[in-house]
Design a protein that fits this description.
About 65% of the residues lie in helices and about 0% in strands. It has 2 domains: about 40 residues, no CATH class; about 40 residues, no CATH class. Helix 2 crosses helix 3.
Length: about 90
């Protein structure tokens, strides 16, 4: 399949792109849709929430920032409960 021809057709008839890929194309561009299709095309892919994807990064940041910020400030920043913030800090 000629990528240039597909991109041209997609640009002309974007309303016919299978959801949610039209929205993905609007947000990230057609190259992102091509990359996603090339990586995962034909398979079922589950995309977890941002909180799940970045869980370990967020926890490390909470531990690091807890030295200079209160649990209350971190609650506002990450949307976790104060108890959850303290659990993260205490388990590390």
């Amino acid at each position: 399949m000629d990528a240039k021809a597909v991109k041209s057709a997609a640009a002309k008839y974007q309303e016919f792109i299978l959801p949610p890929f039209g929205e993905l194309m609007d947000a990230s561009g057609i190259d992102a849709v091509f990359a996603l299709a090339n990586m995962f095309g034909g398979s079922n892919v589950y995309i977890p929430s941002l909180r799940t994807i970045f869980k370990d990064c967020i926890e490390q940041d909470i531990i690091h920032q807890y030295k200079s910020k209160s649990a209350t400030e971190l609650v506002k920043l990450y949307g976790f409960s104060e108890r959850h913030i303290r659990n993260i800090v205490n388990k590390k």
